[in-house]
């Protein structure tokens, strides 16, 4: 079956007990047991819930994994997975990683004795140089947030296998519809499911999907022990949102391509970051490892005053944190996604005060362009 069909026909399209066309919300915390010697499949909802399980199995199916895990947020997923590492371990991380990931690595996991090197992972040579005898993991975003840098996932996975280390990939921007890192040899896929997977700006959630059953068992133990699980109502909402992932991604990506084409022709736009541009340094790699460039782009404008006007005066894009909703969302990385990063670190990575990030929603692209034109060129 092709992707659009698998989203709908995922093994949970009909409730086996009632024949309802959909998964019920099992809004319970505990489950009755029949025997002292034989507990049922479910005992306590932190350890397992049928609604959450249906969602986990659906996301696993879409990522071509063996097991998936749903968490209370994207950062809960990332932080729980980072518990795989121990004091004295070293991680290599992409340099313009999401600010929340930067914060948790540099303030919490550093206290636990886990060392991190931030490098330009678009260069396989830089990754090789950064690997130490105690390196245990490579943490990647591709496209990265917010500069849309592209990392060669198959190349990095090959390096990781040579050194016996794990490859972790945040696949939030692409979703499994456009990119499946496990198919390229990576070990763990992470998502802020709050974004495109749910797609309606009404749920906070996160996911991890793995291919190796042994690794899955370790993560399952951590999920149950740490307990940052997704509740049944939110799980049901994400299951509902996932059903339209294919059409939402296609339409939002179509809009992004049109907006990018227009932005590239504007005098007051200094630079556009989008892997669908033939001039993008990672364009050729993106063509080989993903089915499209996605619906998120970033760009810089001429002045801070123009930046402020864009953020405050657009009417069709919400000035807000997050991305991936049915509505377009314009964000200011310097004070939003990367506010946790010190100014000198942020600017050294190219995340300047005139950089904005735009997640294109389902509005008509012509209307979005007219709104941008009204603010940029009045």
Secondary-structure topology with pairs:
Layout: H1 3-8, H2 50-62, E1 67-71, H3 74-82, E2 90-94, H4 99-109, E3 115-119, H5 124-130, E4 135-141, H6 153-163, E5 166-170, H7 175-178, E6 188-192, E7 206-210, H8 213-226, H9 232-242, H10 245-263, E8 269-273, H11 283-289, E9 296-301, H12 304-313, E10 317-319, E11 328-331, H13 343-348, E12 355-359, H14 365-376
Parallel strand pairs: 2-3, 2-4, 4-5, 5-6, 10-11
Antiparallel strand pairs: 1-7, 6-7, 8-9, 9-12, 11-12
Helix pairs in contact: 2-9, 3-4, 10-14
Question: Could you please describe the fold and organization of this structure?
Answer:
Helices cover 37% and strands 16% of the residues. Helix 3 (74-82) runs parallel beside helix 4 (99-109). The radius of gyration is 21 Å and the shape is globular. The chain contains 14 helices and 12 strands. By secondary structure, the protein is α/β, with parallel strands linked by helices. The strands form 2 sheets. A 7-stranded mixed beta sheet has the order 1-7-6-5-4-2-3, sandwiched between helices. The protein has a 5-stranded mixed beta sheet with strand order 8-9-12-11-10. The chain has helices at residues 3-8, 50-62, 74-82, 99-109, 124-130, 153-163, 175-178, 213-226, 232-242, 245-263, 283-289, 304-313, 343-348, 365-376; strands at 67-71, 90-94, 115-119, 135-141, 166-170, 188-192, 206-210, 269-273, 296-301, 317-319, 328-331, 355-359. Helix 6 links the parallel strand 4 (135-141) and strand 5. It folds into 2 domains: 3-242, Type I PLP-dependent aspartate aminotransferase-like (Major domain) (Aspartate Aminotransferase, domain 2, 3-Layer(aba) Sandwich), CATH 3.40.640.10; 245-376, Aspartate Aminotransferase, domain 1.
